[in-house]
Amino acid sequence: LVACDPPAQTGATLENIQNAGECWCGGTTWHGEPAIRISVCSWATTPEDVDKAAAAFIKARSLAI
User: Fold this and answer.
1) What is the dihedral angle through the alpha carbons of 13, 7, 27, 37, rounded to the nearest 10 degrees?
2) Alpha-carbon distance 30 to 7, whole Å?
3) pTM for the model
């Protein structure tokens, strides 16, 4: 799970990452606060895939500020 501070930016970050189409994440609630569910591993995941997902998250978060 990943969350932003303040919590309001979590929803905006999730929306940005889903709209970008680079990777997909789902929303959830953890201890009453919004959070983002991520999974970047499977038998087909490459190191490049992980790098792309991390870059997409960084970009999505920067747009939410």
Assistant:
1) 80
2) 11
3) 0.85
| Cβ proximity of 57 and 1 under 8 Å | no
Cα distance between residue 17 and residue 40, in whole Å = 14
pLDDT tens digits along 42-65: 888 899 988 999 999 999 999 998
Burial 28-47 (b: 16+ CB within 10 A, else e): eeeeeebbbeeeeeeeeeee
At 27 the three-state DSSP class reads strand
**Which of 51, 35, 26 has the alpha carbon at shortest distance from 1?**
35
Two tokens, residue 9: 């930016």
